[in-house]
Amino acid sequence: MARGSLFTPFDQGRIYGLHEAGYSQREIAERLNTDKGTIGRVLKRLERDPRTPPRRGRPTVLSTSKRQRLVDRLTLDAFHRRLRIEQIAHLEGLDNHNIKTIRKALVKEGYSRHPAQRKPLLTERNKAERLYWAQEHVNWSDRQWERVLWTDEASIRCGYWGQVYVTRKQDEALNKDCLVARFRDYSACMVWGSISQSGPKELFVFEKGGINQDVYIKNIVPLIQKAAIAIQEEGIFRQSALVVQDGAPSHTAKATRAEFLSKGLELIKWPAQSPDLNPIENI
Fold this sequence. Notes:
Helix content: 40-55%
Mean pLDDT: 82
Number of strands: 9
Strand order of the largest sheet: 7-6-3-8-9
Strand content: 15-25%
Shape: elongated
Number of helices: 12
Order of helices and strands: HHHHHHHEEHHEEEEEHEHHE
């Protein structure tokens, strides 16, 4: 056998058998035409566990238990999600480990750093109302959804406000601890938009100032009427549109409702507050 060649399981068995039979490492090396040092290394490995194949690559720096400690720490709450990797390592007494090593260990567990999603804070009532609305419409057909025009306003931050990063898995983007609250007071401008099953519709950017019923009636209702006409013309069944909007004061004002009624626009309030207040009926 050539020196330095890889041993097959059969050759390893021969080495171990000759060693058990009383042959010295030098004698085994001579019989197999290799060097004594190689025989010694093979025997050392086989004596640990003859059935265990040799481990390849470098040994794991962070054990499974250490990785789990890191995960348990960073998933405690929103505060720990926002801590930097080196801060998490410090809290777990792993300052002597390289940060790259810790990052790789967390990636192995499925965690990495991501910008936090900006979402409004939802109360338990908000969640219950949204769930009820979804359950009421889970069996709607494509023909019914074809009528729906979704509308809403959104506040937009302008300029640099700083980015918040969190440590999470890919599917945890909407985890409450991984979100950054969005408040209206921070908005630099407000936009209104609408979409339907066929795609985006009208968009409007408000000038500075609040959005009251007069502003809404003057600027938005004509756009809703235009989008509603487009939905009816584009649809296969030529159905009138159902306009979905939330309970913002400018939406629910008496003057706004009267304007919608005068233009023949059907409204759906989203989300529904209770079965008694839900104005939605099956088509």
